[in-house]
Structures are given as structure tokens and as C-alpha cells.
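Let's practice the habit of predicting before peeking. Look at the sequence and jot down your guess about where helices and strands might fall. Then scroll down.
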Amino acid sequence: MTGGEIWLDPERARRGGADLSLSGKAVRAARQATGDPIAAAGAQRPWGRDDIGGAFDKHYQGYAETLLRVWELLGRSLEGLGSDVVRSVTATVETDLSNARDLGKIPQQRHNPHRPWR
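Done guessing? Here is the structure:
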């Protein structure tokens, strides 16, 4: 943004938004492909059920759940952000075109220097 103007390359911005959305889908797919087996393995408690295994499990499960939840949310957020970028670009272009059409409908008036503007 320079001089109060916004320069926007709509196609490039749309592609960027679409790429961001695809990145989010890829993060979510990786979460499912890798995270689901991690969650399933952790549910089996391979570290045992004795006192030491119980202590480990108590801490592990909280961290594992948080990590897997954040991983999923990151993917969803990237996907949503990409979609928002595409919608925003579309709305910006449509608004700009609409305003240009409306400005073109304003009748041109010549200014008489001897009369004040009305």
C-alpha cells in the first residue's frame, strides 16, 4: 500500500489463497495419516500399566492429545484462511468494478469559475 492505494494482482492473490487452502488440506491429511496411528498406539499404553507406566501415561496422554488437536486445528485454520483470501480478493475486485461503474454514471459538470460549486 503506497499513497493510500492498494495494488492487488487478483489472479496471483487467488492462487496464493488456493495454495494456502491446499496446504491446510495437506497438513490435515498428514495429521490423519501419521497422527491417528500415534493416537491408536498411545491408547494401547505400550509403556506398561505399572506405577512407572502409569506416571508416564498421565503426562504423555495430555501432551499427545494437545499436539494432535493443535495439528488438526492448524490444518483447518490454514484451509479456512486460504478460502478467506480467495473470498476477500473476489469481494475486493467486485467492489472495485461496481464503484467504477457507479462513478461512470455521475454526470460530468463543467465548473464555471464565476459560480461556486453546488
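How did you do? Residues 51-104 form the longest helix (54 residues).
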